[in-house]
C-alpha cells in the first residue's frame, strides 16, 4: 500500500503557521521592518502565461506591512518526495 502525502500542502501549512519564524530564519535582515501583527494570508493567486496559455497558481501569498507600507510576500514551495539521482 502506498502512502501518498501531499508534501507541498504540508510545507505551505508549516510556513503559514510559522511565517514569522520562517522569515526570521531565512531573511533575518527583514525582521526589523516587518509588522508581525499585520500578516494576512491571501487565497491562491492565479497567473496566466498569455503566450503559452498555461495557468500557474502561487503557493503562498502573505499581505504584510513592511517598512510601514502594505506589501506582499510570495513564498514558492517545491517539496520533493525523493532525492534526485
Automatic annotation (TrEMBL):
It comes from the Bacteria. Keywords: Cell projection, Cilium, Flagellum. This is Flagellar assembly protein H. The lineage of its organism: Bacteria, Bacillati, Cyanobacteriota, Cyanophyceae, Oscillatoriophycideae.
